[in-house]
Amino acid sequence: MRPSAAEVLGVPVSLLQSGMGGVAGAELACAVSNAGAAGCVGGYKLSGEALSAILGRLAAGTDRPVGVNLIPEVVGPELLGRQVRQVLDETPDHVYLSLFGVPDDDAVLERITGAGRHLVVQVGTPEDGERVAGHGAVVVAQGTEAGGHLLGTSTRDELVGVLRARLPGSCLVAAGGIGSPDAARRALAAGADGVLLGTAFVVAHESRAHARFKSAVAGGKGSETVITDVYEIGWPGRRHRVLATSVTETPAQAKKFIGRTVVEGKPYLVPRFSAAVPTEATTGRIEEMAMYCGLSCSDISGETSAADVVAAFAHVLPTVPSVENS
Ligand SMILES: Cc1cc2nc3c(=O)[nH]c(=O)nc-3n(C[C@H](O)[C@H](O)[C@H](O)COP(=O)(O)O)c2cc1C
């Protein structure tokens, strides 16, 4: 029998929280892991002291498996290499690595698994899934229902089904549009061994999303999201699903600064069309910024704790009770 995501990652519940740049800091990741699922911080473009700071908080906040998410296509091979080295050097062995998309060079994958770390890679095509499974990664199949940047053009359960047929023995996790236990059940029925949630954790108390972003997700419907490419400053060339805004409706607007934010103590101006999400440290025209959001928002109705999100899904997912008591 193939292993569940919980068995592979050493957590009680086969539920992964997406490492969301800006939104998923150490507080959210540790809360999710301490509640029995696999939490993850968004590493995004952080490096050097800023990355060290978040890694330190992560290691201090939980002794359970927890992850660091990196995005190869955003940072490029040189910075990715430095980020990976830093995570491997500065974190204990129970910290796993999560990648959004497949890096050009498979050597990065080998370096992570060769260091004895678990590797989770999100993909949008069967070919990418096969490639990373060949390196022992947990494969996250992302469907177009997902909030955030989109790696492929298939719907979630379509991709899960194809990958399951091609990779009968691999650990496969479904992502995209999962906001309710029923949606999780459907993904498992399609062949997944666990699920990954992003949008459902945006509204957690521990998430760093701006309060207006959280209430827009909680009050939003899937039909109010759009797939667009307008929020391209900082991450060009990849389509993303966001809540519709005046910027997605009328993209012909001036590229002027519409706000300010702070990342690990450093101030930044936020231009219109920036790929950066509005966080609790962001001020300005929040309603014009990139509010990544999946179709799953239709099933999400209010702010809640990370532990409550995990509890709401745990009863329908594969679990490993013995891990809970260890
Ligand atoms: C606000 C937000 C930010 C995201 N940022 C990242 C990221 O930094 N890295 C990543 O691997 N995926 C990121 N994602 C995509 C998720 O990994 C995942 O594909 C998606 O959340 C699944 O669909 P759902 O939002 O309907 O649960 C983000 C998603 C959201 C909603």
Automatic annotation (TrEMBL):
For this protein, the record's InterPro entries field holds:
Aldolase_TIM (IPR013785), NMO (IPR004136)
The superkingdom listed in its UniProt entry is: Bacteria
| Protein name per its UniProtKB record | Trans-2-enoyl-ACP reductase II
Q: Which portions of this protein are annotated as coiled-coil regions?
A: none
What organism is recorded for this protein? Streptomyces daqingensis
Q: Which keywords annotate this record? A: Flavoprotein, FMN, Oxidoreductase
Pfam families linked: NMO
